[in-house]
Specification:
By secondary structure, the chain is of the alpha+beta class. The chain contains 16 helices and 23 strands. Strands 17-18-16-15-21-22-23 form a 7-stranded mixed sheet. Strands 3-2-1-5-14-13 form a 6-stranded mixed sheet, sandwiched between helices. A two-stranded antiparallel ribbon has the order 4-7. Strand 1 and strand 2 (15-21) form a beta hairpin. The longest helix has 27 residues, at 383-409. The chain starts with a strand and ends in a 7-residue tail after the last helix.
Length: 510
């Protein structure tokens, strides 16, 4: 009998990956496809949901073929996704009414400022655990319903989009729901993704009537909310579809919660930081939704079938890996690997600080009008100083979160589990250890986002027996310890705060 595995669709901000894992959590297959980023106006970011779905089919097919596997060898599929990115689509045709609005998109900043002026911020925070921000799905859905062009549906109907939504003709979801719908025909999301919409009450565990009314989002268009690891399954793939097999779709997690799961942070106090397009630092707070007094988010970490929800504190940094991409875009580097070489060639930045607030600042500042800033340059500044300052900005932003996390949780960080593409950079890992003054632990399998959703799906169908089996899979690749004097690190970090101040509230209306 052929060996069996669990597959994971990892739909990220810049591309879609498909990975297959065996019982030991090792990678058996891996395929990746980038998708186009659309920037219709400054601060606006869109993706084409149809392109994402087509790419998903491509990477799943290519991944299986490259490893010589048949889809029937998959015991389950899990999904992990860029969170908050929002799609509205026609239930009958399956066609989106507009491009997806990406989590980075800032077009609804004015709407958020209206909420602030109306005194709604505290209510939103109490119910959802979130700051009122354009980052989340509520204002994105509202914008689409107000502004999408009905002609894109290629229909003669001219009904208001909200009327069509109330009649169940339009569906809304984050990317996980969009993929589940295309894979199974069912309209389902998980608790971790629901908790990122700014429409879901994370304590009552249901869509919130008051918030739905505030944003005029009809309940009829919302997905059913299920556990992240669901023994009842989200559905099955169509045996007559692109896979040619009936594979259970059994789990989903927003990408950062998936990384928490993949890093086996199952216990209260466990923490991880994922370095991707942005960086996201999460700490498991157990069954308690801990409120933040220091600019962090309270979010749902995950839920397994028949078990209570596990909550987390989260620090969301909008731009880290994307800052490296910007260095490529402006031809300061040829590729990401070059950053370590250039940064090492400079003993310091010589006073240069780079604040990569390209789409505003997230935690703990929450300034949607902050913008990217480079300060401290002189005639002697070279590209190596700017490259090093960019890497340092990643470390400083993470320290912002680490200090807020310790203040909110009362738990001192003694080691931090890290993952994501950027942690392959040893220079950055050592720099991060120096700036935070704590140990940085990198696992053997650094694609923990995909691994986490595979774990969630595999647990649901019994491929893995329990979380102890998953803990035994987790192996350290390398650990980095602080080498920099603490006083020097503190001094560098203090000056970072001055640079951040200069980036705040920059983008003003004409």
């Amino acid at each position: 009998m052929p060996a069996t595995y669990v597959g994971s669709i990892d739909q990220g901000t810049t591309g879609t990956r498909f990975m297959v894992f065996d019982h030991s959590g090792q990678v058996v297959a891996n395929a990746y496809e980038r998708h186009e980023q659309h920037y219709p106006e400054p601060g606006w970011v869109e993706h084409d949901p149809v392109e994402i779905w087509e790419n998903t089919k491509t990477v799943v097919t290519e991944g299986l073929e490259s490893a010589g596997l048949d889809a029937s060898q998959l015991e389950a599929l899990g999904i992990t996704n860029q969170r908050e990115t929002t799609v509205v689509w026609d239930a009958a045709s399956g066609k989106p009414v507009h491009n997806a609005l990406v989590w980075q998109d800032r077009r609804t900043t004015d709407r958020v400022e209206e909420l602030e002026a109306d005194g709604r911020v505290e209510e939103i925070r109490e119910k959802t655990g979130l700051e009122a921000d354009a980052y989340f799905s509520a204002t994105k859905t509202e914008w689409i319903l107000d502004n999408a062009e009905p002609l894109k549906l290629q229909t003669s109907r001219t009904q208001d989009l909200r009327d069509r939504a109330r009649e169940g003709e339009l569906l809304m979801g984050t990317i996980d729901a969009w993929l589940v719908y295309n894979l199974t025909g069912n309209h389902i999301t998980d608790v971790s993704n629901a908790s990122r919409t700014m429409l879901y009450n994370i304590r009552d565990l249901e869509w919130d009537d008051d918030l739905l009314a505030e944003f005029d989002v009809p309940r009829e268009m919302l997905p059913e909310v299920r556990p992240s690891s669901d023994e009842d399954l989200y559905g099955h793939t169509d045996p007559d579809g692109f896979l040619g097999a009936e594979v259970p779709v059994a789990g989903a997690l927003g990408d950062q919660q998936a990384a928490l799961f993949g890093q086996t942070c199952f216990d209260e106090g466990d923490a991880k930081n994922t370095y991707g397009t942005g960086s996201f630092y999460l700490m498991n707070t157990g069954n308690e939704a801990v409120e933040s007094d220091h600019g962090l988010l309270t979010t749902i970490g995950f839920q397994r079938s028949g078990e209570p929800v596990q909550y987390a504190l989260e620090g969301s940094i909008f731009v880290t890996g994307a800052a490296i991409e910007w260095l490529e875009d402006v031809d300061l580097i040829n590729n990401a690997a070059q950053t370590a070489e250039l940064a090492r060639s400079a003993e310091s930045t010589e006073g240069v600080y780079m604040v990569p607030a390209f789409t505003g600042l997230g935690a703990p500042h929450w300034d949607g009008r902050a913008r990217g800033t480079i300060v401290g340059m002189t005639r002697g500044t070279e590209k190596k100083h700017i490259v090093r300052a960019t890497l340092e900005s990643i470390a400083y932003q993470t320290r912002d979160i680490a200090e807020a996390m310790e203040a909110d949780s009362g738990v001192e960080t003694t080691s931090l589990r890290v993952d994501g593409g950027a942690v392959k950079n040893n220079f950055l890992c050592q720099l991060q250890s120096d700036i935070i003054q704590t140990n940085i632990v990198r696992p053997e399998v650094d694609e923990t986002t995909a691994l986490g959703s595979a774990y969630a799906a595999g647990l649901a169908v019994g491929y893995w027996d329990d979380v102890d089996e998953l803990r035994s899979n987790w192996q350290v690749d390398r650990e980095f310890e602080p080498e920099m004097d603490a006083a020097k690190a503190d001094g560098m970090y203090d000056r970072w705060g001055d640079a951040v101040e200069r980036s705040l509230d920059w983008a003003q209306e004409d």
